[in-house]
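Sample intake sheet
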Amino acid sequence: MAQGLDYRPVRVLKGHKMAISSVRFSPNGKWLASASNDRTVRIWDAYTGDYLYSLVGHSLGISDIAWNPDSTVLATASDDTTACLWAINPESGKRIKTFKGHTNYVMCINFNPKGNLLATGSFDHTAKIWDVEGGACIHTLGAPHKDLVVSANFNNDGSKLVTASFDGVVRIWDVSTGQVAFFFSFSRADGPSHPVCYANWSPNSKFVLVGSFDGTWKLTNIKTGEVQRQYIGHSFNDYCIFAAFSLTGRKCIVSGSADKRVYIWDINTQQLLQVLEGHKDVVVAVAAHPHNGIIASGALDGDKCVRLWRVQSELEAALSDEAEETEHDDMKREDSRYDYDDRDDRDDRDDRDDRDDRDDRDDRDDRDEEPEEQEEHEEHEEERDERDEQDEEEYDEQMKTEHNAQNNRVSEEEEEDEDDDGMMDEETLQQLQRLQQLQQLQQLKRLAQQKEQAMNRSGSEESGGNSGCNSDSDGA
């Protein structure tokens, strides 16, 4: 029973219209590329699974893909007999070179560790080594193979190339000379060797992992051809199925399978650690992330999907980091809101302080203006008293003038009366009585005005002593 790992499904990447043929993570870990028989390559974010863009240009299906060491170029191998290079950036990809020379489907492709050489294998029974910069074919490795070449990979220093073929033989080539350095096969007693569908170097390049139609993966010594480890449980059923080395955490071998599953074994103990289920068709393509516990897998036409799987501990950590980041963002937004509130409070306090300062200044100004207003009021009262005195004097003078005139008229009339009969008539007596009454009324009016003026002066002094804010009424 599988045990020891806990990969969980993360996301299903949909978009390809036909079978998935290959999946590869970029060496920098940022991107995942998936190839399909629909003639396209799709570029995805390796961590989130978000679709970025597609590479379109081949006239037939794409069988294999490979990244150069610095993750800036992607190579594609196609059934249209060509291999192409594409410049890759976060926004788009552009075809920059095409390699022509094979006469049948190009089945496999890979860069050497320096990125200056490219190896391809074909249905035409040959493998070729190409100069990346110039585009020329350096070596055609063909004479020994007797069937289609399905795998071609450089070792970790780029000096050797291993190829696998349906003829059942694994060959190791000297890259500098283009000659076979070593080969081996797995013969069986009842007939020829099983076709070999995949071969790749172990991380230290001391062994080659070989998959064949006998239903096993074999870790083989390159010097003796002896099988050091064997991994079973999956099935090939005559499908060319990829395998990958996962070196993050526990050292593992990851393989697709004809039973629609992904199998993971411990490299050293050969223990089956976990089986991943979810695809609906044969899983032919797998890849392991270079830095994290992430696996990608792709299946044939009944599924047409790429699936991302991640170790539970890393998934929880990623989710925790995302949650912390979200919480941090929320806290920043909350802090910003508090900052706004604090600024509003400070602004309100400043406004209140400004209003208080203005009120204080107004009060000081009012207090400063009180003596001036009081002096102006007193001056106004004096002027009014002077005008009243002048009016009274003028009135008295006028009344005296009228009184003298009346007396003169009376005297004249008396003299005339005396001349006439020597005595005052009744009409003259009545006029004298009215004149006396008029004089008494004038005297009473003057007394009343003097009393009113005295009361007004007394009220103004009392009002000015009690309040300094009655300037409007005082000046009325």
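Comment: The helical segments are 312-420, 426-466, 471-474. The radius of gyration is 57 Å.
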